[in-house]
Design a protein that fits this description.
By secondary structure, the chain is an alpha+beta fold. Helix content is 30%, strand content 28%. It is built from eight helices and 19 strands. Strands 3, 4, 5, 6, 7, 8, 9, 10, 11, 12, 14, 17 and 19 form a 13-stranded mixed beta sheet that branches. A four-stranded antiparallel beta sheet has the order 16-15-13-18, with no helix packed on it. α3 crosses α8 and α6 packs antiparallel against α8 (263-279). The structure holds zinc ion (ZN). Zinc ion (ZN) is lined by residues 97-98, 101, 185. Zinc ion binds at residues 97-98, 101, 185.
């Protein structure tokens, strides 16, 4: 226990003695109340604990969110708490829900090393890898333990499968403890992605103003306006939406593609985070917000109507017209059997990065440019 509790304890002991001998019952009661509540008060001032990681001001601590076994196996999700030397808000940085979106994971790993608690006002909770089984087994999109996406089952449930139990612990230990949240993603093993961010307005002006400031400060130049999301707190689905619905400004950022870890992509996510922390006054210095972002009003999915071999004719980031051919699909004898086309004009946010294609697989996501900024 810290010095504060010790001091209070000795004051209590003196008061007890004095009270028995000389003083009124009311002063004894007051001292007793201070003593009873002092551990709570002291811990709020002195240290910040998430899972098994506990850091005093000016310290960085590591530990785990322990997800107990249920109808399937247990898992331990790594957590880092960086408790700034100065007081301020709590920012959560969560990545690796999809454990093979490597740039998003490596960027947060880099932040774990680079963020200096001596310079931070407030506290940063970092979850550098939510989906360990996906990462270890190189399985894209889902947690191989239960075959569920780890960004679709929030706020989670205690009696569910591993993904749902992990989601509940992240909701309780991270979302409920933070003031702001950033969720990191990117192109998965089979996705060729150009960097972009999501901004999900809630209709609450003060909250939306802050989340918009965060997404602009982050600096990615294409921003999807993500409307029409679940508003029921017990069925929020996505992590950032779980935070938004609970009143915490939050954004999603995406960079990297198809198993690569390119320095430029990592730098986008690292520098974007530092700029956002400056905008939130958690780091000294000025943010560098993107000045002329392309706002996207919706995403249009193009999926394959056949199985076969995919040959792309566009690249990530290509601007396409409605009706433009995105590529072609052949059977295993080389005969063209499908020519998927863009249903809308827009920008290729991500494109199938591999030749393997089965019916229903995603070929491309096209971002439709908003005629005006929000
Ligand atoms: Zn993802």
């Amino acid at each position: 226990m810290c010095w504060l509790s010790g001091t209070l304890y000795s004051r209590y002991a003196q008061s007890l003695w004095g009270g028995l001998m000389l003083r009124s019952f009311s002063s004894l009661l007051a001292c007793l109340l201070i003593f009873l509540f002092s551990p709570l008060f002291a811990s709020a001032q002195r240290s910040f604990t998430v899972g098994t990681a506990s850091a005093s001001p000016g310290e960085k601590a590591t530990g785990y969110l322990e997800v107990p076994a249920g109808i399937d196996s247990a898992t331990n999700i790594p957590v880092v708490v960086i408790n700034g030397a100065k007081s301020g808000p709590v920012l959560a940085l969560v990545t690796g829900a999809h454990g093979t979106e490597y740039v998003s994971i490596i960027a947060v790993e880099k932040l774990v090393g680079e963020l200096d608690p001596a310079k931070i006002s407030g506290t940063v909770i970092l979850i550098p890898l939510v989906n360990i089984a996906s990462f270890e087994q190189k399985v894209p999109h889902v947690n191989p333990i239960d075959n569920k996406s780890m960004n679709r089952f929030y706020p989670g449930r205690a009696d569910g499968t591993q993904t749902e139990r992990a989601s509940l612990i992240i909701t309780n230990q991270v979302v409920d403890r933070c003031d702001y949240l950033i969720d990191y993603h990117g192109g998965d093993l089979d996705e060729s992605l150009r960097p972009y961010a999501y901004w999900g307005p809630t209709g609450k002006d003060a909250q939306d103003r802050i989340s918009k400031e965060m997404v602009l400060a982050f600096g990615l130049d294409h921003i999807i306006i993500w409307r029409d999301r679940p508003t029921d707190p017990i069925a929020t689905r996505y992590l950032d939406n779980t935070a938004s619905v609970r009143g915490k400004p939050s954004i999603v950022v995406e960079a990297g593609y198809a198993g690569t870890v390119e320095a430029d992509d990592v730098a986008l996510l690292v520098n974007g985070t530092l700029s956002t922390m400056r905008a939130l006054k958690m780091l000294p210095g000025e943010p560098h917000p993107v000045e002329n972002p392309v706002w996207l009003e919706k995403i249009v999915d193009v999926s394959s109507d056949v199985e076969g071999i995919f040959y792309p004719l566009v690249k990530r980031g290509t601007y396409v017209e409605a009706g433009m051919k995105l590529g072609y699909v052949t059977d295993f004898f080389g005969k063209t059997i499908s020519e998927p086309r863009a249903p809308n004009a827009g920008v290729i946010l991500h494109l199938d990065a591999v030749p393997s294609l089965k019916k229903g697989d995603n070929i491309a996501d096209i971002g439709v440019v908003s005629p005006k900024a929000p």
